[in-house]
Specification:
This protein starts with a helix and ends in an 8-residue tail after the last helix. With 143 residues, it is mainly α. The protein has two helices and no strands.
Length: 143
């Protein structure tokens, strides 16, 4: 009896140890599975974070490129406007010079129309005055 009892008790202890071992292995396996899942979640989070950083960097680069392009467009618009102003001013000056030239030509034509004979006499007087002026010295008075 005693032998059977010890044997039963040893069998019970062995069964208890076996159950403890199974539970420990299950707990260990669950712990390993949980750690694996946590690592996978961390990797997924890191990938998402890296993707967000890449998207942010690409957006920032694109915005910088758009800003540079816009600055170039504004500069070109300013240059075009400045050139248009220069061209307009040049046109105004040319028109003013042309207008002045035409007024001078008109005044000369009117003067010539009023006194055609006087002009020739005036030129002769001017020629003779020039001859007389070259013959006199600066201190001489012409009478």
């Amino acid at each position: 009896e005693r032998c059977c009892f010890v044997h039963q008790e040893n069998g019970k202890k062995a069964k208890d140890r076996e159950q403890k071992a199974i539970m420990l292995k299950q707990n260990y396996d669950q712990h390993i599975d949980l750690e694996t899942k946590i690592r996978e979640q961390q990797q997924i989070a890191e990938k998402q974070n890296d993707q967000e950083i890449r998207l942010y960097a690409n957006a920032k680069r694109k915005m910088a490129g758009l800003r540079k392009k816009r600055e170039g467009e504004l500069f070109q618009a300013f240059q075009n406007h400045q050139q248009a102003m220069v061209d307009h001013l040049a046109t105004l000056v040319k028109e003013q010079v042309d207008d002045e030239d035409s007024r001078i030509a008109k005044a000369v034509a009117q003067r010539d129309a009023k006194a055609p004979s006087r002009r020739g006499g005036w030129q002769k007087e001017t020629s003779s005055d020039a001859k007389r002026n070259t013959q006199t010295s600066p201190g001489d008075h012409v009478s």
